[in-house]
Design goal:
Helix content: 55-70%
Shape: rod-shaped
Number of strands: 7
Strand order of the largest sheet: 2-4-5-7-6
Largest sheet: 5 strands, mixed
Radius of gyration: 45 Å
Strand content: 5-15%
Distance between the termini: 65 Å
CATH superfamily of one domain: Histidine kinase-like ATPase, C-terminal domain
CATH class of one domain: Alpha Beta
């Protein structure tokens, strides 16, 4: 980051410590942009940067200007004696040395914006002295009557003016201070009798050239100022982006910590709630079954039945919250073993057959034969299948069908899918039902029981196995959910490897199958 931007940020980033972070950042950027919209007449920060550029240019131009001075002195010996030329050369080199010394001092000390005006005045005086030193060349050559001397003087003044323009372009006042003595020296040297004389056009051309150099220096100054403004604004925007990224990272870190704390809290509370809930379920079961004698009032039997059903629903909710909290908190430990997907699907379908018959839903299977086992957590796989089948039966209307498929993927993994002929899910509601406690409009209209945790739990368990979870749905056509287990979890699908080169996970899987 440039020194301009660093100074701007130091002045305006945390100006109001009592304001919120966004307000402080907005104030900082507003102040930074106000600094960047200067015309160069009162921008102290840019003045310092321009002075640095001027000093660097002055130091770099010392050698070319010294060589030019020596070359001019050598050529002038054709018309003037060595003593006069030497005096002029010493004066020019002295002024150049003074300018170099001041520029070097400014760059070494690094004086800030408070002393910028004083340094500008010093440099303007030095450039004025430089212009006077070069303008004295006209006085030196004034007594020469050779026609070629006039042309020679004009060339010398144009070369000097060009170098002055390039070096002092970053300080417009210094440009004028250096060129004004040259213009005056040209007029005095030519001394045109009238505008119609033969020397007048040459004088006007020389003065016009100096005027052009003044305009050129102004253009260079404006271009450099625009470049500094763009660079400063870019650096300010980079600073804003870095601050915004820092704020975003901090906000994300806090959100992750809050989510983790929430998950841990839910996991702890769910575990603590299960102990008294088991007692409620046990005693309500005893009261509902009338193990210690019939109720004196028949309504008590209904009350105890309601208590038991409500307790079971609450236990299911607590179990789901506990599972989701463990998955989100990263505390769900997979107890991996050899699992046959076809067998798990068959068991789950058998458990839910009665529920499907009550709702008038037909269940069918399409499973590829001779599928090998996979290395997975059987309880998690069973919960995935139960949740998907339960949702499919619940949202399939009477007379509908639920199709279960299992087979190979093209990559060598295994998959199983559950497809129903229900009403489907609108595309915009899919992110909702995939979030915790999210329920679609169909579930709300039908008042179906559920917590909205089934699919998030399934997705989390699948991802723990390194698999993928895909949900496809179309309105009035149905929904299909596909669970894919990666190839590395398939235990013995391919021909046997040599004992020394067999992958560790397959060796482990083979031991589990045995």
């Amino acid at each position: 980051m440039s020194e301009v931007t660093a100074e701007m940020i130091a002045r305006g980033r945390f100006a109001d410590g009592r304001s919120p972070e966004r307000r402080r950042m907005a104030n900082h950027m507003r102040e930074a942009r106000e600094r960047l919209t200067s015309s160069g007449a009162g921008n102290i920060v840019f003045d310092v940067e321009l002075l640095r550029l001027y000093c660097k240019g002055r130091k770099e131009a010392i050698v070319p200007q010294a060589l030019l001075s020596l070359a001019v002195a050598a050529m002038t010996l054709l018309w003037m004696p060595l003593s006069l030329v030497g005096i002029w050369l010493v004066g020019v080199l002295s002024v150049l040395g003074l300018g170099w010394a001041l520029a070097d001092r400014f760059l070494r000390q690094g004086d800030g914006a408070q002393k910028a005006r004083n340094w500008q005045a010093r440099f303007i005086c030095v450039e004025a002295a430089n212009g006077l030193a070069w303008s004295s060349f006209a006085l030196l050559m004034s007594g020469v009557s050779d026609p070629w001397a006039t042309t020679y003087v004009m060339v010398v003044f144009m070369l000097a003016a060009a170098i002055h323009t390039v070096v002092t372009a970053f300080l417009p006042a210094a440009v004028y201070a250096a060129l004004a003595p040259n213009a005056l020296a040209i007029v005095l040297y030519m001394r045109p009798a009238s505008l119609s004389g033969p020397i007048a056009p040459l004088t006007l051309l020389a003065c016009g050239t100096l005027f052009y150099f003044a305009i050129l220096s102004r253009r260079i100054y404006a271009s450099q100022l625009d470049r500094l403004a763009i660079q400063g604004e870019k650096d300010a925007l980079i600073a804003e982006l870095e601050q915004a990224k820092s704020n975003s990272d901090e906000a994300r870190r806090r959100a992750e910590e809050a989510s983790l704390a929430k998950s841990r809290f839910l996991a702890t509370m769910s575990h603590e709630l299960r102990t008294p809930l088991n007692a409620i379920l046990g005693f309500s079961e005893v009261m509902k079954s009338e193990l210690f004698g019939p109720h004196a009032v028949d309504a008590y039997r209904d009350y105890s039945n309601d208590i038991h059903n409500s307790g079971q629903h609450l236990l299911m909710l607590i179990n789901e919250i506990l599972d989701l909290s463990r998955v989100e908190a990263g505390r769900y430990e997979l107890k991996e073993e050899a699992v046959l997907i076809a067998g798990v699907i068959e068991d789950c379908r058998h458990l839910l057959t009665l529920r499907a018959r009550k709702r008038g839903v037909t269940m069918s299977e399409i499973i590829e034969p001779n599928m090998p086992r996979i290395w997975a957590d059987e309880r998690a796989v069973r919960q995935i299948a139960l949740n998907l089948l339960t949702n499919a039966i619940k949202f399939t209307p009477q007379g509908g069908q639920v199709t279960i498929k299992a087979g190979w993927t093209m990559a060598g993994g295994q998959y199983f899918s559950v497809k129903d002929t229900g009403p489907g899910i609108p595309e915009e509601e899919i992110p909702i039902i995939m979030s915790s406690f999210g329920r679609g409009s169909t579930a709300q209209k039908n008042a179906d029981e559920g917590t909205g945790l089934g699919l998030p739990i399934v997705k989390g368990l699948v991802e723990l196995h390194g698999g993928t979870f895909t949900l496809r749905s179309k309105l009035r056509e149905g929904t299909e959910v596909i669970v894919v287990f990666p190839p590395e979890r398939v235990m013995s699908a391919l021909p046997q490897f040599n004992q020394g080169s067999e992958p560790p996970e397959r060796q482990r899987g083979a031991r589990g199958a045995a």
